[in-house]
């Protein structure tokens, strides 16, 4: 099971089971669990109406028999049929259980109904939410992008319906700031969204009136459209800023309208939008919630933490500032080592450790970043699985070009520039102005010399060092719902 946590899910809904006997009272038999009671087998064997939500405020309505035991694989066939998803693209999507507190990508063998009943137990295990928030939280069943689907395969999709599903999800992540991007990106993406919604033939007057009717936040990220001045900004200043954004959006829209002799087809616009998103390294990530230490700036600021989203995909790990909407640290798997530690004492946190190369006063050092999160174990396992998948795919490619690979490896060993394992240093990170690039200078990290001996001070003790963890490819063991939970 892949778990992720982040900001509030747009288009939030819940797994709805319409019927006279599907309203379950809380189960108070367990002091920590508030799951609904089990419906009778007769009720669950009858056909139940289920809503599977999509991005873009739409849903697929299904009538499901035997809801209590139906699997993701069985639901998938019905949803793909309803959405006309071609067989060639069926792996692009997966089922997720989502709420503002937690997001879970399900496997084909999972049974969504049982997981819904276990939802509050999962919240206690993987979130820091209060008991009140947990008791009120309800998941929805959602059909969305499979985090393990390669971007290279996505580029080959031509079906307009499938592209629209991928577009709606990417658009949501752009507008909510989950995918940080620079002005040249979000302005171009906003113009493409407008063209897809309204067509490419509007003149300036109709464009402006439509923008003001629908609001800029329908096309630009919320933190951009709303601004950061709050109550301190004057109405005149805000109005001037809005007018500037509208004008810039209009200019980008005109480029789309006049870029070709014939108006672009929707599939062309969808491809253009997704291709731009593919340039963001964290496109398609699963997101987890955590905190990191703030840099110490004085006695009064010691011990303070910053909320971060941790995005993990097949390419690497990305730590993002939740408030500022920019990347704090981006590491490809060839640039990092990692580990996870459990709490030693009551009040301690689960920690995901990320180790990477840096400099201190011109001296090469190893840096450690601590990410505090109840989802640290999930993140560590997810990284491990992604490394295995990447190694397997690269191994297959290497087998096809064995001769070239041998020459390349010999060259690499001669110049000592190996990226992985103990043989050489990983690529150095460079700070830039773009929101997509790492801000290592703003992180509170632990530095130690290159021999790695100081790793011993990390607690609790780990079975493997960072270096052996990076170089080896241990068998991945996904986090499973315990048998006691499934039996309720």
UniProtKB/TrEMBL annotation:
One of its GO terms (biological process) is negative regulation of canonical Wnt signaling pathway. Transmembrane segments: none annotated. InterPro entries: Band_41_domain, FERM/acyl-CoA-bd_prot_sf, FERM_2, FERM_central, FERM_domain, KRIT1/FRMD8, KRIT1_FRMD8_FERM_C, PH-like_dom_sf. GO terms for cellular component: plasma membrane. Residues 1-39, 398-430 are annotated as: Disordered. Residues 407-420 have a biased composition (Polar residues). Residues 48-394 form the FERM domain. It comes from the Eukaryota. Pfam families: FERM_M, KRIT1_FRMD8_FERM_C. PANTHER family: FERM DOMAIN-CONTAINING PROTEIN 8 (PTHR13283:SF10), KREV INTERACTION TRAPPED 1-RELATED (PTHR13283). This is FERM domain-containing protein 8.
């Amino acid at each position: 099971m892949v778990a992720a946590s982040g900001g509030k899910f747009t288009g939030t809904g819940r797994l709805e089971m319409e019927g006279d006997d599907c309203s379950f009272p809380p189960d108070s038999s367990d002091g920590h669990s508030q799951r609904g009671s089990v419906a009778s087998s007769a009720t669950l064997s009858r056909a139940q109406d289920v809503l599977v939500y999509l991005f873009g405020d739409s849903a697929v309505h299904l009538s499901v028999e035997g809801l209590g035991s139906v699997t993701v694989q069985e639901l998938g066939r019905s949803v793909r049929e309803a959405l006309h998803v071609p067989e060639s693209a069926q792996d692009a999507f997966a089922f997720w259980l989502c709420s503002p507190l937690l997001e879970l990508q399900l496997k084909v063998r999972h049974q969504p109904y049982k997981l819904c009943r276990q939802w509050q137990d999962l919240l206690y295990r993987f979130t820091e939410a209060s008991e009140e928030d947990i008791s009120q939280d309800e998941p929805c069943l959602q059909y969305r992008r499979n985090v393990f689907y390669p971007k290279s395969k996505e580029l080959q999709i031509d079906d307009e319906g499938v592209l629209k599903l991928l577009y709606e999800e990417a658009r949501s992540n752009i507008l909510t700031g989950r995918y940080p991007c620079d002005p040249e990106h979000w302005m171009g993406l906003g113009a493409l969204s407008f063209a897809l919604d309204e067509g490419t033939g509007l003149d300036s007057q109709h464009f402006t009136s439509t923008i003001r009717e629908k609001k800029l936040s329908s096309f630009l990220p919320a933190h951009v459209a709303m601004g950061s001045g709050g109550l301190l900004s004057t109405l005149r200043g805000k109005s001037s800023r809005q007018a500037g954004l509208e004008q810039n959006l209009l200019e980008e829209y005109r480029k789309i309208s006049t870029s070709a002799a014939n108006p672009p087809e929707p599939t062309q616009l969808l491809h253009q939008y997704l291709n731009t998103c593919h340039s963001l390294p964290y496109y398609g990530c699963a997101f987890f919630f955590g905190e990191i230490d703030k840099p110490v700036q004085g006695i009064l600021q010691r011990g303070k933490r910053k909320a971060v989203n941790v995005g993990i995909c097949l390419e690497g790990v990305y730590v993002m500032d939740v408030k500022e909407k920019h990347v704090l640290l981006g590491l490809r798997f060839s640039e990092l080592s990692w580990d996870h530690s459990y709490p030693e004492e009551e009040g301690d946190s689960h920690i995901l450790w990320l180790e990477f190369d840096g400099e201190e006063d011109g001296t090469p050092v190893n840096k450690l970043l601590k990410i505090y999160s109840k989802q640290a174990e999930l993140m560590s396992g997810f990284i491990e699985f992604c490394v295995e998948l990447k190694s397997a795919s690269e191994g297959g490619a290497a087998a096809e070009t064995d001769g070239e690979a041998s020459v390349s490896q010999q060259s690499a060993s001669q110049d000592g520039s190996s990226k992985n394992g103990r043989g050489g240093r990983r690529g150095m990170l460079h700070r830039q102005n773009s929101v997509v690039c790492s801000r290592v200078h703003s992180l509170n990290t632990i530095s130690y010399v290159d021999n790695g001996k100081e790793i011993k001070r990390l607690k609790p003790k780990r079975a493997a060092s960072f270096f052996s963890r990076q170089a080896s490819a241990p068998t991945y063991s996904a986090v499973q719902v315990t048998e006691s939970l499934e039996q309720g």
